Amino acid sequence: MSVSALLVVAAMMFQSGVDSTGTAIARPIGDVKQEETTGSYFQMFEFYGRPPHTWEHAQAMVSGYVYKSRPGRLAHIKTSSIHYFLLLNFPDLHSKKAWIGLGAECNKKADIMWADGSLLKNQSFRAWNEGTLKKISRSCRAAKDSGKFFPVYYDSHELGLRWETNSPKGNLQYMVVEFAQPEEEPKADEEQTSVPDDK
User: Fold this and answer.
1) What is the pTM of this model?
2) At 86, is the secondary structure helix, strand, or coil?
3) What is the pLDDT of residues 75-118, one digit of tens each?
4) Please, how many CA atoms are within 13 Å of residue 75, restricted to the half-sphere of its CB?
C-alpha cells in the first residue's frame, strides 16, 4: 500500500473508527494483496485501543475504509481459491484469530450468511472447525427466533485455517478486510428496431 493510501486509510480510521462504546481503531498489517479470481483486494487489520473489538464494531468500522475507490467489508470467503489465497498470503492468520464477514442468525432456519446477505447454503465451499455447526445449532435452538447473531472468525488449525464461531460480544484483535471488485452496472436496454414480418 502506498504512503498516500495508508494516510487516507489512517485518516478514515480516526474519523469513523471511534464510537461511543470504546476508543478502538484498527491499523493495517502488511501489504494489500489482490486475489486474481475475484479481483478483490484483501488486507489484515489489527485493533488497538479500548474495546469493543467485536464483529459488529469491526463491520461498522470497515465500511468506512476505502482502497482504490472500493469500500471495505469483512472478508467474504466464498470459494476455495479465496481461502487458499488468504492462507498463503497472510501468514499472521496462522497464529491470530481474525473476524471475517460471516455469521449465524438464530431465526426459524438458523441462517448462516455473509455480511452482503448471501446465504452460505448457496455456495459449495466450507471451512468449519469440527463441531462448530453443532454448536451453532445448539445455540440457536436455545435462542430460537431471537435474532441472536453468532459471528464467525478464522481460527488457526493443524489443517490450515478453519471457521469458528464466537459470542456476539466476543472480542478479537484482528480482522480480514476485503475491498471487493464492484459489480458491473446493468446495461440499459438498447433501443431495438422492429422489422416488419413479410406477409
Assistant:
1) 0.81
2) helix
3) 999 999 999 999 999 999 999 999 999 999 998 878 999 999 99
4) 30
